[in-house]
Amino acid sequence: MMGSTSYLVNARDKAGLLVAMARALAGDAEISFEGDLASCHLRELPRASALETEVLRRNTLDPLQDFVVLPLEEETIKEVLADVIHSGRLSKILHVQIAKARTSRFRRLRQLPSRVHGGSR
């Protein structure tokens, strides 16, 4: 049986890491953003959802943050990331997660969650 490997990366170029991970994982994937999304247009994008998935779940429950899940496909990367990175809004986003084939593949947590859902992550 194969074990699970995870890495803790302290990236200096957070936007660059997010772009690289999104490009590498696009296709049969979803991305979630959690934080102050009031000035973002992510919730207006096609197939955007404020609902958690089995894999992409909220990390902060108190205080409750804005949360959105979007499809991550080759044709959606530019539109999704442009709203976050090129507008300078990345600093207002606390958590970013990417799931591919319904399996968690990338998590960027700005800080350790104060309250999280039960179960393994």
What keywords describe this structure?
121 residues; alpha+beta; four-stranded antiparallel β-sheet; 2 helices; globular
Quick structural summary:
This protein has helices spanning 14-25, 77-86; strands at residues 29-35, 66-72, 93-100, 103-109. The protein has 121 residues and is an alpha+beta fold.
What does this structure look like?
By secondary structure, the protein is of the alpha+beta class. Helix content is 18%, strand content 24%. The chain has helices spanning 14-25, 77-86, and strands spanning 29-35, 66-72, 93-100, 103-109. Strands 2-1-3-4 form a four-stranded antiparallel sheet, covered by helices on one side. The longest helix has 12 residues, at 14-25. The radius of gyration is 14 Å and the shape is globular. It starts with 13 loop residues before the first helix and ends in a 12-residue tail after the last strand. The model is unreliable at 112-121 (pLDDT under 50).
